[in-house]
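In the design runs reported in the main text, the only information available to the sequence generator was the tokenized backbone. The following block is the verbatim input for one such run; it is reproduced so that readers can re-run the procedure and compare outputs position by position.
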């Protein structure tokens, strides 16, 4: 049974493995962030994090510097992911920005809820927060649907390529044979 399970894992890994694509990432280096990277991350948190996150971050800065640095690094990576998404897929980018705005608003409302002592105001804030969370959920579902659509398109392209290679199998094998046997060196341009 273990061997069958292992075989299935290996088979799915081989079937779904993608060719190596060299991607250039602009991630911050391991270790301490530069002052510029730190400022970039703090600006991103201030813009999309809301009042509560900014105050929590400020508290971490003095109480737990390593945790503070980790949050900054994560925020910086999120910012750079968002920048790449803007270039790659504008629709998904706009959806993700909407999610960030709603998250920020929900954190601000939660902070306001905690500060307020009036039960009537708390009920209003809670109702508004529930509506925002519902819209945020809908946007996240839309984001996931878009990502699935993109994956399905990629799978369709891979299947087309696989079928094309299957049709041209003989030609591909012949060309590879010539290369391996070094018979094509005189035919090159």
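Verbatim output:
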């Amino acid at each position: 049974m273990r061997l069958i399970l292992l075989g299935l894992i290996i088979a799915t890994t081989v079937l779904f493995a993608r060719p190596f694509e060299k991607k250039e990432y602009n991630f911050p280096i391991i270790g301490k962030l530069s002052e510029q990277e730190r400022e970039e991350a703090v600006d991103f948190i201030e813009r999309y994090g809301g009042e509560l996150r900014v105050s929590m971050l400020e508290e971490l800065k003095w109480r737990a510097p390593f945790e503070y640095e980790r949050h900054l690094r994560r925020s910086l990576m999120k910012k750079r992911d968002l920048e790449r998404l803007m270039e790659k897929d504008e629709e998904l980018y706009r959806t993700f920005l909407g999610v960030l705005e709603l998250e920020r608003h929900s954190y601000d409302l939660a902070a306001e809820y905690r500060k307020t002592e009036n039960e009537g105001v708390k009920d209003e804030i809670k109702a508004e927060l529930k509506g925002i969370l519902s819209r945020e959920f809908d946007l996240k579902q839309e984001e996931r649907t878009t990502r699935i659509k993109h994956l399905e398109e990629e799978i369709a392209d891979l299947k087309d390529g696989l079928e094309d290679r299957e049709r041209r199998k003989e030609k591909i094998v012949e060309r590879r044979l010539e290369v391996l046997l070094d018979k094509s060196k005189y035919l090159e341009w």
